[in-house]
């Protein structure tokens, strides 16, 4: 536990990627396989289910230190995180006990011998064990233990950096490690040793028992600056950026699996697509997107939401909410890897593989023929009316890399929709921001009252967050646990990707991916938007005319793409 607590603290104190990789590499290099497996489990974003609730754990700590309710509540309001609060109050308590100078259990021993067995015990036994453990651990270790007990442990490091560190220790490539960590796996010394075994590697870095696992996803970076900096537009493959579920479909013999980008097996949620894709001949791995409705004109993400998280959708739901699979890339076919071939070759192979099967529910992402970046700009402005989020730009000579590597794929999203809303409440963040008010509630006018429209926690700089945190503390009206309502006097511009009706929100609308764009110091509270603004905005998006500028492009076609051909209905060139 001590080694993991130290690692967690070191990673939390640096933002330099190379330094994070160095810290993890050194850690894995000196730890036993069992500890390494559990640490890898947590670093890769996985965690066991909650064993003890935060409220209950906080009450046990309060009983141990003897704090009155008001002091515990004030302390929690200042800290904002239960795990950290408990670690601090135990360290400050009059009867605080220093850890005994004896050999400590490893993280693996803690998990297997202590923490996981708690799930089968009653509360009194759990409480007794946890109180003993708190006396045994120092402040940092207690914080980690509390996070593990409440199932809220998150480590500030990307999976790509974790792959690099493990790959360095195992003397393998990052892509091989990433492939072997896909899907559900249980941490153990045997697993970690098997992770670094080179003997059964295939050309793709997969072993025989991994044939139905996806490959590490290639991710797009947001475009920064002018697109002209990317060079000649003819060197780039341009497609619409659809708003669906990114996934990989893996087929081996008569078996097939669909995996989300979050490494979740979603085959059972889409039996209609499973049947359709099973008819495509051969063994292969194809990257693509599940979209709502007909792939020629995908529906909104809101239309797709009815199909999400349904383990066994009914026939009625499948019929009322049809979906399509839109293929992007071919990664593997008939025992041969295509990931290291140029995109132009992968695209040609993808078309040959899928053309015989293309239909209403299965297609290939159309290529958009553009002769200049100015033409691309005009086309991008029509994205929302086409049901897309913007454009995807992919270097034609690029390989299919692991993670987000600049210069390979770019997403050129349209500017967000926006409204002006009033800050009406706030609560503390988590992790390093647990002591600051960083999660904000915004409202719009409905008659003479302000009603909640969205919550947002991103978009402000650290300096702006600190300033706003001080203001919130001074202008609090009421408290409800960690939440403070504040004086309605500050207006912010809130950006979002989409809007839909919702009975679950007071305003009657749900905003997709809301975030703060800027504070509107030039506007009074009375000038903030009203619910009617959302009504008008939704109506304009549903309109068939869409934005005023209707730049057009056609889908690229060739004799080999006869089934892919379809005219966007906009003619050959660009026009108003």
What distinguishing features does this structure have?
DNA ligase i, domain 1; D-amino Acid Aminotransferase, Chain A, domain 1; OB fold (Dihydrolipoamide Acetyltransferase, E2P); 3 domains; seven-stranded antiparallel β-sheet; 34% helix; disordered C terminus
Structural description of this entry:
With 576 residues, the chain is α+β, with helices and mostly antiparallel strands. The protein folds into 3 domains: 2-150, DNA ligase i, domain 1 (Orthogonal Bundle); 218-410, D-amino Acid Aminotransferase, Chain A, domain 1 (2-Layer Sandwich); 417-542, Nucleic acid-binding proteins (OB fold (Dihydrolipoamide Acetyltransferase, E2P)), CATH 2.40.50. It has 19 helices and 21 strands. It has helices spanning 2-12, 17-30, 33-43, 54-65, 69-79, 82-92, 107-115, 123-136, 139-150, 159-170, 174-180, 189-195, 271-278, 301-304, 315-320, 343-354, 373-381, 462-474, 531-542; strands spanning 218-219, 221-222, 236-242, 245-252, 255-260, 284-292, 323-333, 336-337, 362-364, 388-395, 403-404, 409-413, 417-428, 437-446, 449-456, 476-480, 483-486, 491-496, 498-501, 509-512, 515-519. The strands form 5 sheets. Strands 13, 14, 15, 16, 17, 18 and 21 form a 7-stranded antiparallel beta sheet that branches. Strands 4, 5, 6, 7, 8 and 9 form a 6-stranded mixed beta sheet that branches. Helix 1 packs across helix 9 (139-150) and helix 6 (82-92) packs antiparallel against helix 9. The longest helix has 14 residues, at 17-30. It is globular. The chain starts with a helix and ends in a 34-residue tail after the last helix. The model is unreliable at 199-209 and 544-576 (pLDDT under 50).
């Amino acid at each position: 536990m001590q080694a993991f607590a130290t690692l967690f603290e070191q990673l939390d104190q640096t933002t330099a990627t190379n330094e994070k990789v160095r810290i993890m590499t050194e850690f894995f290099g000196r730890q036993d396989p069992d500890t390494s497996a559990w640490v890898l489990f947590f670093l890769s974003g996985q965690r066991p289910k909650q064993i003890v609730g935060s409220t209950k754990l906080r009450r046990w700590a309060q009983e141990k230190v003897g704090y009155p309710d008001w002091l515990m509540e004030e302390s929690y309001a200042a800290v904002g995180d239960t795990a950290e609060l408990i670690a601090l109050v135990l360290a400050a308590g009059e009867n605080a006990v220093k850890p005994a100078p004896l050999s400590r259990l490893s993280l693996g021993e803690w998990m297997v011998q202590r923490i996981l067995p708690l799930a089968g015990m009653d509360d009194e036994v759990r409480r007794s064990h946890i109180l003993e453990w708190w006396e045994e651990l120092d402040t940092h270790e207690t914080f980690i233990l509390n996070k593990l007990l409440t199932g809220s442990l998150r480590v500030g490091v990307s999976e790509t950096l974790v792959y690099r560190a493990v790959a360095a220790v195992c003397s393998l490539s990052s892509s091989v490690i990433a492939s072997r960590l896909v899907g559900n796996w249980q941490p153990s010394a045997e697993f970690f040793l098997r992770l670094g075994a080179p003997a059964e590697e295939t050309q793709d870095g997969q072993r025989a028992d991994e044939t139905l696992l996806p490959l590490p996803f290639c991710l797009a970076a947001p475009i920064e600056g002018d697109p002209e900096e990317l060079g000649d537009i003819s060197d780039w493959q341009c497609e619409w950026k659809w708003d669906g579920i990114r996934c990989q479909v893996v087929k081996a013999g008569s078996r097939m699996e669909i995996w989300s980008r979050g490494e979740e097996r979603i085959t059972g949620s889409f039996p209609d697509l499973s049947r359709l894709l099973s008819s495509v001949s051969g063994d292969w791995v194809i990257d693509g997107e599940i979209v709502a409705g007909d792939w020629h004109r995908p529906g909104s993400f809101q239309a797709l939401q009815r199909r999400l998280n349904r383990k066994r959708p009914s026939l009625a739901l499948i019929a009322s909410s049809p979906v399509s699979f839109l293929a992007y890339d071919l990664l593997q076919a008939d025992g041969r890897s295509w990931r290291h071939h140029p995109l132009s070759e992968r695209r040609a192979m993808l078309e040959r593989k899928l053309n015989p099967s293309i239909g209403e529910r299965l297609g290939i992402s159309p290529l958009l023929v553009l002769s200049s970046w100015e033409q691309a700009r005009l086309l991008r402005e029509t994205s929302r009316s086409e049901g897309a989020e913007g454009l995807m730009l992919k270097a034609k000579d690029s390989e299919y890399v692991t993670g987000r590597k600049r210069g390979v794929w770019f997403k050129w999203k349209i500017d967000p929709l926006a409204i002006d809303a009033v800050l009406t409440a706030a609560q503390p963040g988590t992790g390093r921001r647990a002591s600051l008010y960083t999660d904000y509630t915004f409202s719009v006018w409905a008659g003479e009252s302000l009603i909640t429209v969205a919550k947002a926690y991103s978009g402000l700089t650290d300096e702006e967050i600190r300033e706003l945190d001080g203001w919130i503390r001074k202008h609090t009206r009421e408290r409800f646990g960690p939440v403070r309502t504040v004086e309605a006097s500050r207006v912010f511009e809130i950006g979002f990707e989409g809007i839909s009706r919702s009975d679950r929100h007071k305003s009657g609308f749900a905003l997709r991916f809301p975030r703060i764009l800027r504070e509107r110091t030039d506007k009074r509270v009375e000038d903030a938007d009203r619910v009617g603004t959302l009504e008008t905005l939704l109506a304009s998006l549903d309109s068939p005319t869409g934005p005023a500028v209707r730049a057009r492009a056609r889908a690229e076609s060739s004799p080999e793409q006869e089934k892919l051909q379809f005219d966007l209905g906009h003619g050959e060139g660009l026009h108003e």
